[in-house]
Amino acid sequence: MNSLSRLELARLVAHQLPKQGFVNLGIGAPTSVADYLPSDTSVMLHSENGILNVGPKPAEGEEDLDLINAGKMPVTLARGGSFFDSSLSFSMMRGGHLDIAILGAFQVSQHGDLANWTTGDLNGAPPAIGGAIDLAVGAKQIWVMMEHTTRDAQPRLVERCTLPLTAVGVVAKVFTNLAIIDVTADGFVVQALFEGASLESVQQLTGAPLKPAPTLRRFSSNGVLAPSR
Known about the structure:
Layout: H1 6-16, E1 20-25, E2 42-47, E3 51-54, E4 77-83, H2 86-94, E5 100-103, E6 107-109, E7 114-115, H3 132-138, E8 141-145, E9 157-158, E10 171-175, E11 179-184, E12 187-194, H4 199-203, E13 210-219
Parallel strand pairs: 1-2, 1-5, 5-8, 6-9, 8-10, 12-13
Antiparallel strand pairs: 2-3, 3-4, 6-7, 10-11, 11-12
Helix pairs in contact: 2-3
């Protein structure tokens, strides 16, 4: 089954953000969202290590190794951007000042439980949960951006997480390379599917029941969500 690449998924997520607000980009794939924000956006991107109004990645050869995001990747600073220490950054995260945090995940349960800090493999894995827990409980909304299955085709969307949890019941929306899914009191509700994918085929790759939204939309590899019909 065809699906979005990671960069195409980042473009899709970027174009679903509101026109304004404060948005944290978690370490890993979510950092690419900064490269695809629409030109008319007023969203300000936050990085856990102390940057507000993060810009896209720099052109090759123009990297400033003193200007990096929380994942230690070179970034740029958008107009009006600022720097601050970790205590202020975490105060923003814990104090409810972030409208959305976009995080990667290993698993998300149908109840919105988030597992995104360890698979139990200690070989090169982070030694602790880090700032993910602060974002998970501090941001007003948690969006997850991840591939629909693991490399060995095991579901990441599950009835109950089997990996250590980051936080319970916090995920509002999940973007995968196959679908956009809301997490509701009734479980996973599919809002949109990648072109060519069917609800039945995506259900086979999912470890929990999927319910279609009243109007099921489509998105393409360019990250554009088709209008409702």
